[in-house]
Design brief:
Blueprint (H helix, E strand, L loop, with lengths): L2 H4 L6 H17 L10 H11 L13 H8 L9 H42 L1
Helix pairs in contact: 2-3
Length: 123
């Protein structure tokens, strides 16, 4: 039984999301070699299967090779959980920005509609 399950408080949305991130990392890190790091192959798989949609939101596109190089801070050809979190953070921030851009675009569109409706009511 994990510590989280022993605690009395139910897990929050954010805590559940953290659990999912940890679980997904382990699904890939346990495939080969060190069970708690990602090899280049494991990283490639994780990106292809788990970040297929949201990686697009990152403005400067990088190859798997480049991503691995950027994240592998201690240059051991393996990504620790912390190093992998840098990618998760980068993609999450880019997605957050993307959602605001979409929202802004929709808001401008709605704004135009509101003006049209106001003009109709004034007649």
């Amino acid at each position: 039984m994990s510590k989280a399950q022993q605690s009395q408080e139910p897990l929050s949305e954010l805590e559940k999301a953290m659990d999912v991130i940890i679980d997904v990392f382990h699904q890939y890190s346990r495939r080969e070699g060190d069970r708690d790091t990602l090899s280049r192959k494991e990283l490639k798989l994780l990106i292809e299967k788990q970040l297929a949609n949201y990686l697009r939101h990152v403005k400067n596109k990088s190859s798997i090779e480049q991503i691995m190089k950027d994240l592998d801070v201690n240059k051991d050809e393996q990504l620790s959980f912390g190093e992998t979190m840098l990618l998760v953070t980068r993609v999450t921030c880019a997605t957050h920005e993307h959602l605001h851009e979409v929202e802004e675009h929709q808001h401008q569109h709605q704004h135009q509609h509101q003006h049209q409706h106001q003009h109709q009511h004034q007649h």
